[in-house]
Design brief:
CATH class of the largest domain: Alpha Beta
CATH architecture of the largest domain: Alpha-beta prism
Keywords: Amino-acid biosynthesis, Aromatic amino acid biosynthesis, Cytoplasm, Transferase
Number of helices: 12
Function: Catalyzes the transfer of the enolpyruvyl moiety of phosphoenolpyruvate (PEP) to the 5-hydroxyl of shikimate-3-phosphate (S3P) to produce enolpyruvyl shikimate-3-phosphate and inorganic phosphate.
Oligomer: single chain
Family: Belongs to the EPSP synthase family.
Catalytic activity: 3-phosphoshikimate + phosphoenolpyruvate = 5-O-(1-carboxyvinyl)-3-phosphoshikimate + phosphate
Largest sheet: 4 strands, mixed
Structural class: alpha/beta
Pathway: Metabolic intermediate biosynthesis; chorismate biosynthesis; chorismate from D-erythrose 4-phosphate and phosphoenolpyruvate: step 6/7
Number of strands: 24
Length: about 425
């Protein structure tokens, strides 16, 4: 599907979708548990991939309604799957499930789509091997398809912290049900640290103790996943909140109110401060969980995305509208997402007339040297690129067509419906 956006002024109320990061973890944690009800869950292409993995491990995930999942778990140790686990486009699924597969007494095969099969899994495979399992890439390049044979009993393992925090999350979640537990020693500085904070928060809610140590993280073995009252509620997603928030900052006729913006461990809450620093009128009532934002003249700033890689596309679009330079730093790891998001935003915004400077670890948007013009741009089969380019279309001179826009289903299935509800004029083409 392609979507053509006509420049529009927006107003109204937006409901934050549930967090994708929390939903992934809650579904798998519920798989490790017995019977769990997961409320306010995001049912998207990515989280459905995690649910399918739980089903193949011997659990059962069913939808009671649009936002409620009933999960019958596999009580700690997964069965050997009867089929290949297809993680589709979900990197979170592949990494979390790879570690879970290492607990099974047998062999699991995991694969995904073309994009996912190009993403690095090597450090996690090496960690599983160091813990006594057998984990390898069928092509010998550290990328899927993967073949994992267990079971592992736990132990100490060293792993880099600057490639993906999901490796640490995967090992901590699996480590709780091993006999010995797992001590993770970080070989390099941890990037995207708030995502491990999310993991620790979810583990605690499921009754699992894990902690940060002087040189990494540790989880004791022999624990059970058991949420209080057999239920877990997923908070709103600040990665997704960044899009209506940025839309309000650049294209609101009056205030846009975002509901469901309750504080949590998510690093992407930083987007509220970023929008405020750039000059938009924004107010976050943390107790009520609401954010009110209205547009104003924006100015470029310097922003590190070391802990918030998913925000780079949104910040880049804000920079295209702002005066001066917006310098996005500590961005190397953003190149290893669904696509190389640093290059993708530089190239697609360039198609729209935006001047950028791309370096290995940074992206600078030269707002004052740019004229944002409508164009046909590629969404790169990446939900975050698609949504960020759609925002640019709200204020570009002329119509903007985003190709492959249906990939927003990965994290924000109702994104274009929401834009229309807020007043955006858009047309879908099959």
């Amino acid at each position: 599907m392609n979507v053509t956006i006509t420049p529009s002024r927006l107003q109204g109320t937006a409901q934050a979708p549930p967090s994708k990061s929390y939903t992934h973890r809650a579904i798998l944690a519920s798989g490790y548990a017995g019977q769990t009800t997961v409320r306010d869950a995001l049912w998207s292409a990515d989280t459905q991939a995690t649910a399918r993995a739980v089903n193949l491990f011997g659990g059962s995930v069913s939808r009671a309604d649009d936002a409620t999942l009933e999960v019958e778990g596999f009580d700690g140790r997964p069965d050997v799957p009867a089929d290949v686990i297809d993680c589709d486009n979900s990197g979170t699924t592949m990494r979390l499930v790879t570690a879970a597969a290492a607990l099974a007494d047998g062999t699991t095969v995991l694969t995904g789509d073309e994009s996912l099969r190009s993403r690095p899994q090597g450090p996690l495979l090496e960690a599983i091997a160091d813990l006594g399992g057998d984990a390898r890439s069928t092509r010998g390049n550290g990328q899927a398809p993967l073949v994992v044979t267990g079971p592992i009993d736990g132990g100490e393992v060293a792993i880099p912290g600057d490639v993906s925090s999901q490796y640490i999350t995967a090992l901590l979640m699996a480590g709780a049900v091993t006999d010995e537990g797992i001590d993770v020693v970080l070989e390099t500085e941890l990037k995207s640290a708030p995502y491990v904070d999310i993991t620790l928060e979810v583990l605690e809610a499921f009754g699992v103790e894990a902690r940060q140590t002087a040189d990494g993280f540790s989880v004791e073995g022999g624990q059970s996943y058991d949420p209080v009252g057999g239920e877990y509620a997923v908070p709103g997603d600040f990665s997704s909140i960044s899009y209506p928030l940025a839309a309000g900052a650049i294209a609101s006729e009056d205030d846009i109110r975002i509901e469901g913006a309750n504080p949590s461990a998510q690093g992407d809450t930083a987007i509220v401060d970023i929008v405020d620093r750039m000059g938009a009128d924004v107010e976050w009532d943390r107790e009520a969980g609401t954010i009110d934002v209205s547009s104003a003249s924006l100015s470029g700033i310097e922003v590190s995305v070391e802990d918030t890689p998913d925000l780079l596309p949104t910040i880049a679009t804000l920079g295209a509208v702002a005066d001066g330079d917006t310098h996005i730093t500590n961005a190397e790891h953003v190149r290893y997402k669904e696509t190389d998001r640093v290059s993708a935003m530089a190239e697609e915004l360039g198609t729209m007339g935006v001047a950028t400077t791309e370096e290995h670890d940074s992206l600078t948007i030269h707002g004052s040297d740019s004229t944002l013009e409508g164009a046909t741009v590629s969404g790169r089969a990446d939900h975050r690129i698609i949504m960020a380019l759609a925002l640019a279309g709200l204020v570009a001179d002329g119509e903007t067509t985003v190709e492959g826009a249906d990939h927003v289903d990965v994290s924000f299935p109702g994104f274009f419906d929401l834009l229309e509800e807020l007043g955006c004029s858009l047309e879908r083409q099959s």
